Amino acid sequence: MEKETEKYIKDTYKSAVEKYVKATNEIGLWQSEQYVFNKYFKRQDRILDIGCGTGRTTFGLYMQGYKKITGLDLSEEMLNKAREINKKLGINIDLIEGNAIDMDFAEETFDKALFSFNGLMQIPKKENRLKALKEIRRILKKDGIFIFTTHARNRGEEFKEYWEKEREKWEKGIQDKRLFEYGDRITTTKNNREELFIHIPTHNAVVHLIKEAGFTLIEDFFRPDKFEESKKVQEFSGSCQFWVVKK
Fold first, then answer.
1. What 3 state SS string does the chain have?
2. Domains defined for the chain, CATH in brackets
């Protein structure tokens, strides 16, 4: 990933740190996450939590008995907060600064991996997301499982008009020049203090990306179809699609 793109991602997360700390302290694992983790992860597995942020899923998994877990994130600010929580909890999880596209791990190091809260789609450009998936496949052992989430551009009538207008902008070349491709968005929080980049894919686009990376899709579901999450979870995270793939 180009240095300017990496810097772009890091900069967007500097203002979101406290939001993630609050989620780590007050929300923890979602019902839907507990379902997929308990279904596919074993307590003895060596697990990599990619894009761990301030440790919401990392600490949540550790507290449920998944002790061989490592957290990886691109943001030093996020990791510093995660390390503070790590110390406060009196545990010693490895929390490493690193890039999902080029990880400093040997081949077949981990049994399982996750990239929660739509983190894979917060990597700009399809070519970079594909590189990340191939890198994740590289560090997984044979038959290793990778779990991630995305938004779903073709689910929800409330966004249909928005994406139609965005398509028109792209066709006319008048889209936000900070965006890289159709499907990209820069979202703003309620207080207008934070801007975050994310790509919103279609279901078929993710299926093709998974195949291109060499993974096999074994389960996917739209979260609201299976779970009614708490109000706090819904406020923190919009509806998303879960993906479970196998090396």
1. CCHHHHHHHHHHHHCCHHHHHHHHHHCCCCHHHHHHHHHHCCCCCCEEEECCCCCHHHHHHHHCCCCCEEEEECCHHHHHHHHHHHHHHCCCCEEEECECCECCCCCCCEEEEEECCCHHHHCCCHHHHHHHHHHHHHHEEEEEEEEEEECCCCCCHHHHHHHHHHHHHHHHCCCCCCCCCCCEEEEECCCCCCEEEEECCCHHHHHHHHHHCCCEEEEEEEHHHHCCCCHHHHHHCCCCEEEEEEC
2. 3-155+201-246 (3.40.50.150)
Structure tokens of 28? 């923890």
CB atoms within 10 A of CB 183: 20
Average pLDDT, the chain: 93
What is the reported pLDDT for 11?
73
For the entire predicted model, the pTM comes to: 0.95
User: Angle at Cα 229 formed by Cα 223 and Cα 232, nearest 5°?
Assistant: 125
